[in-house]
From TrEMBL:
<dbReference type="InterPro" id="IPR038765">
    <property type="entry name" value="Papain-like_cys_pep_sf"/>
</dbReference>
<dbReference type="Pfam" id="PF08379">
    <property type="entry name" value="Bact_transglu_N"/>
</dbReference>
<feature type="domain" description="Transglutaminase-like">
    <location>
        <begin position="160"/>
        <end position="224"/>
    </location>
</feature>
<dbReference type="InterPro" id="IPR002931">
    <property type="entry name" value="Transglutaminase-like"/>
</dbReference>
<protein>
    <submittedName>
        <fullName>Transglutaminase family protein</fullName>
    </submittedName>
</protein>
<dbReference type="InterPro" id="IPR013589">
    <property type="entry name" value="Bac_transglu_N"/>
</dbReference>
<dbReference type="Pfam" id="PF01841">
    <property type="entry name" value="Transglut_core"/>
</dbReference>
Length: 267
């Protein structure tokens, strides 16, 4: 499937920042299941300073704001050819070792609610790893309903489970946390998803991957209760959202921030 993607993030401030440095992870790479045919990221109101590949092999661009700028626009667009690998990404790559993905982070630290869910799943666990992780996905979907507007980027996996609702970011964090408790290396994925009922979207998508002996990394999208297919484009991975966020960074001295995102993903 050939997917055309257009993604624009616009920031407005009531006064200029005295210092700003943004990490931009918006460039997908050709890898298992996807081939990047065209891609470009343009910045208005700022400058690209350098680019590098981080420990997860994500392509990162560092962007500074122009002096006096009160509006910054980061626009990415391109074409990606994708195939359906039933969620299988394959062998581990990148610079971070596999054991690194067993680590808890502040967003994925298990508390009583998550450990209780993990114990219940372990008691009814499947002998097959793939079936076990699909059962985990189903358990989370039933325990935490998809409900936008009630969590944010700082919501932890434990908080989302206790609340009983969240969005794709929360589902990914919960899956990652529980997979690690069950003994699987797991990581967060940010990227794009072509939806069947719309072209215009409000945000990028997120899902999780677990490492299974003999298969490598395999994707699980709790919010849609499937393993990623040809409608998905992987962009960045990390231990959690903070290591794979499309845009993150440091901002000093700016006033009130107003952010708007426009995103189109279509065949």
């Amino acid at each position: 499937m050939r997917l055309t993607i257009s993604h624009t993030t616009r920031y407005r401030y009531d006064r200029p920042a005295s210092h700003a440095l943004q990490q931009v992870r918006l460039t997908p790479k050709s890898r298992a299941g996807q081939s990047v045919l065209e891609w470009e990221t343009e910045v208005t109101g700022g400058q690209k300073q350098l680019a590098y590949d981080d420990q997860h092999n994500n392509h990162v661009e560092l962007v500074t704001f122009d002096p006096g700028a009160t509006e910054i626009v980061i626009a990415s667009h391109g074409v990606v050819e994708s195939t359906n690998g039933t969620g299988i990404v394959g062998p581990h790559g990148g610079f971070a070792p596999l054991w690194y993905f067993r680590r808890a982070t502040p967003l994925t630290r298990p508390g009583p609610a998550l450990r209780r869910l993990a114990r219940e799943l372990a008691r009814a666990g499947e002998s097959d790893d793939v079936q076990n992780l699909h059962a985990l996905m189903s358990t989370i979907e039933q325990a935490v309903r998809y409900d936008p507007g009630n969590t944010d980027s700082g919501t932890t996996a434990e908080e989302a489970v206790e609340a009983g609702h969240g969005v794709c970011q929360d589902h990914a964090h919960i899956f990652i946390t529980m997979a690690r408790v069950l003994g699987y290396p797991a990581r967060y994925v940010s990227g794009y998803l072509m939806m069947n009922d719309r072209v215009e979207q409000d945000a990028t998508h997120a899902w999780a991957e677990a490492h299974i002996e003999g298969l490598g990394w395999v994707g699980f999208d709790v919010s849609n209760s499937i393993s990623p297919d040809e409608r998905y484009v992987r962009v960045a991975t990390g231990l959690d959202y903070r290591e794979a966020a499309p845009i993150s960074g440091l901002l000093v001295g700016a006033g009130t921030e107003d952010m708007a995102v426009t995103l189109q993903v279509q065949q």
